[in-house]
Amino acid sequence: MKLVIIDYGAGNIKSIQFAFKRLGIDAVLTDNPEQIKNADKVIFPGVGEASTAMKMLKDSGIDLLIPTLKQPVLGICLGMQLMCDYCEEGDTKTLGIFKVDVVRFSDAVKVPQIGWNQISNLSSLLFKGIKEMEYQYFVHSYYVPRTSQEIATCNYEKVYAAALQQDNFYGLQFHPEKSGKAGELILKNFINL
Amino acid sequence: MKNSTTDSLPFEKKPKTAGQLAKRIIPCLDIKNGRTVKGVNFVNLRDAGDPVELAKLYSEQGADELVFLDISATEERRKTLRDMVRSVAATINIPFTVGGGISSIEDVDILLKAGADKVGVNSAAIKRPDLINELSQKFGCQCIVVAIDAKLLDGQWKVHLMGGKVPTELDLFDWAQEVEKRGAGEILFTSMNNDGTKNGFANEALSKMASLINIPIIASGGAGTIQHFTDVFLKGKADAALAASVFHFKEIGISDLKQELKNQGIPVRL
Q1: Which CATH number fits domain B24-263: 3.30.565.10, 2.40.10.220, 3.20.20.70, 3.40.50.620?
Q2: In terms of CA atoms, which chain A residue is nearest residue B210?
């Protein structure tokens, strides 16, 4: 089982590596295209600002590589957002795997959303063994509206897509690596896909 | 689990099950030279001074997040703190914030790379407010918690420096609004009038702050009973409540606390 975490300089990826370590898996941090292509599973992480992260992806050429990957790919938080068509943050054209735009929460709610919120409408093997309304840890100011590619929803200001899937590409808005035992199970499910 | 009834419906007809963002309970650990100080009282710990062991215990008891406040003043503090952060991040699976003496992009970079989720800045931000903008732009607002210590003096809440030792002319509410504009992701407000009293949180000031800013507020100072936590959420409008000694000395159990909050209709993660 070769698991790689794409290391393109965006954010704290140590936590994700530690989370897999707790599951007994040594994930490799890399920006090497060959290594990414040859992995069994790929994690696409990211925290921070969308246009900056997108620029870092482009600088390393990984922006062109990701959409061509055939193995299961899991985008986490900003990683998922970068797999969408467009992100309002920094007016950023993104990878276009998920046919949906990422928009900002309005000032009707506190922004960013920080903390534990519930996920529901779970419809993917990724959530095998996870109960409806399970809590996961979220930290984000931008969100993906409901779409046919959603595999989970969350409610903050409105019901929105908390997770997405298109073919071999998966995305989670929340941080499973920081979401206790339930989060660990989701990571384990990804490994077992 | 997969729900076949829901799955077979066309997308537009899927029910809109609505969850809710939970209020957070955050134990705070004071750290000196990589060890917890102020004392803790847990019989089931091998070493009550080990921050990793204590972090694990709180995480298992249902804490939503942890805050580590470093109060060491040694030459090696940066390295010691980094090593501690790395051990904590390797062990626990909930988010944690590290604060204390952080004054530069480099400080923050080291801690985030070691596995901290957020950093708390306090005095350095008061001395040089642009630091907040710089950190927020570099690392994203979500990991920048601005800690504010303030004291009510002659009817005005004054911000204090250096862990509350040095008063400034800054007004609490002006400063809270300014740090939001500069890119803080959260505010951790400690009322020095309430801290250590166990008489409850500064709910009036907290709810006033909540009406003025649109980022989450972590309330700190004054926790003594479960009722105080209920009040800080219902009256103080806080998003999270932080406490130290009531947890360290087992005066309040985290799971009992959260169960009671739930009984009071406050959304919590159980």
Answers
A1: 3.20.20.70
A2: A110
Q: What Cα–Cα distance (Å) separates residue B55 from each residue in A133, A139, B110, B172?
A: 26, 21, 20, 31
Could you tell me the CA-to-CA distances from A149 to A172, B14, B151 in Å, in that order?
A: 12, 13, 51
The pair phi, psi for residue B158, each rounded to 5°, is -105, 130
Helical H segments across chain A, by residue range: 14-22, 33-37, 50-60, 62-65, 78-82, 180-191
Q: What is the pTM of this model?
A: 0.93
Q: Given the structure tokens 């975490």, which residue do they identify?
A: A5
Q: Tens digit of pLDDT for each residue in B131-162?
A: 999 999 888 888 999 999 999 999 999 999 98
Domain boundaries of chain B, sorted by first residue: 24-263
A77 is catalytic: yes
Cα atoms in the Cβ-side hemisphere of radius 13 Å centred on A5: 24
Those of residues 108-137 in A touching chain B at CB distance below 8 A are 110-125, 127-133, 135, 137
Tens of pLDDT, residue by residue over A19-55, are: 999 999 999 999 999 999 999 999 999 877 889 889 9
Residue in A12, A112, A135 nearest the CB of B269: A135
A140 annotated active-site? no
Q: Which residue do the tokens 């809710």 mark?
A: B20
Residues of B in contact with A121 (CB under 8 A): 3, 6, 14-15, 17
Alpha helices in B62-117 (DSSP H): 77-91, 105-114
Which ipTM was obtained for this model? 0.93
In whole angstroms, give the CA distance from residue A114 to residue B148.
Answer: 19
Q: Could you give the CA distance from residue B12 to residue B6 in angstroms, rounded to a whole number?
A: 11
Residues 6+ apart with CB under 8 A from B22: A115, A116, A117, A135, B64, B267, B268, B269
Residues near B60 by Cβ (< 8 Å), separated by ≥ 6?
A: none
Structure tokens, B58: 């709180």
CA distance A123 to A147: 13
Tell me: the pLDDT tens digits for B149-203?
A: 999 999 999 999 987 788 999 999 999 999 999 999 999 999 999 998 999 999 9
- Tell me how crowded residue B104 is: count the other CB atoms within 10 A of its CB: 14
Contacts of A38 (CB under 8 A, 6+ apart): A2
